[in-house]
Amino acid sequence: MRLTKTGVEALLSLKSGIDVPSDLRAEVHSQSAIGEQYVALTPRGCDTRPLRDGDVIPLSDTSVPPDVNTLLADANAGLQAIPGDNLKTVIDESYTAVGGLGPELSQIVRGSSNLAIDARENLDPLIALIEQSQPVLDSQTHTSEAIQAWASHISTVTKQLQTHDSAVARVLERGGAAADSARQLVDRVKPTLPVVLANLLSVGQVAVTYHDNIEQLLVLFPQVVSAGQAGLVANHDTKQDYKGQYLSFNLNINLPPPCSTGFLPAQQQRVPTFEDAPDRPAGDLFCRVPQDSPFNVRGARNIPCETVPGKRAPSVALCESDEQYVPLNDGFNWKGDPNATLSGQPIPQLPPNAPADSGPPPPVAPPVAVAEYDPATGGYVGPDGLHYTQEDLARGAAADKSWQSMLLPPGG
Fold this sequence. Notes:
This protein has twelve helices and seven strands. The chain has helices spanning 68-81, 84-98, 102-121, 123-131, 134-142, 144-163, 165-189, 193-209, 211-230, 316-320, 338-342, 403-407; strands at 2-3, 8-9, 24-30, 37-43, 62-63, 379-381, 387-389.
């Protein structure tokens, strides 16, 4: 060591083979209050070159310990400022607090040392974490109100749990059996639940599409019920009260006539007297007359298209296509394709302005069956080979037949 005009210079010698980074801080320490001093070289990082012969550590990167005399004087003044009785109390309470905790304190010291060593080995990431922690701290500051509200809600929930401790205990006690029952229920419905959910999906799609129609139906349904109940007013408080609705029958027979266009021809229609239940013929069977025709005005051809406002069509496919509904005729004569209908194919929709004879000609329909009858008795043999009798065809039958007599059974 040598004196200079500004202080003291220390000439240090290092052992060869030990690399000390040049970016460091030189600190003078004492081994004890009266012991010898030494210089501690503390590197700031490991990325700089090692020290070489002739390198100078500037004064700004050095520090010396405080004067021992000043330190002892300050310590003595501090001890004199502490009352003796209080100091004794502090020492006694400290002994009581840490007495017998030597192993634990030793473990804390070792853990602190290991933490310091690990922090020193990861100094650069630790410094980067400290420097980049500002956005995280700012976010905590900005969300302080939300955090306080969350803590308040947690406190409320905790108080509710404390208040209803017995109920919560019962839930915990019986929750296992309830969960097991729920599991068994899920196991039982597992085979059918996917099918039900798939069907509900289709129903949901239809409900969404026809939302406005369903809403209108719910609006009008109470009015319809009210109108139906109004029919009971005429018989209220009378002898006929038990008979229900008050109705006036007006037989508008064949006004308008029934629609036969688009259905099976007469040769393929079933006799009404049959009591069996055959399968429905494949294909689309509906009244195929113009939409403004008076025949079957509530038929499928006049169903409004929900997804295309202002358009009416008998099927969803026709609603969503660019095609328009094309009738078969005006409704006064039967027209259709019975063979295509029975084969499961719909009656073809003709595009607008298309010639009627486009495509292969339809098959010729079988002729209408003709049966001869006996004028004396009115009997005849039907197409099914059975014998039938029509009394009004026999000689001597009354000529003045009215529509009332036609509604009465024979001999009535």
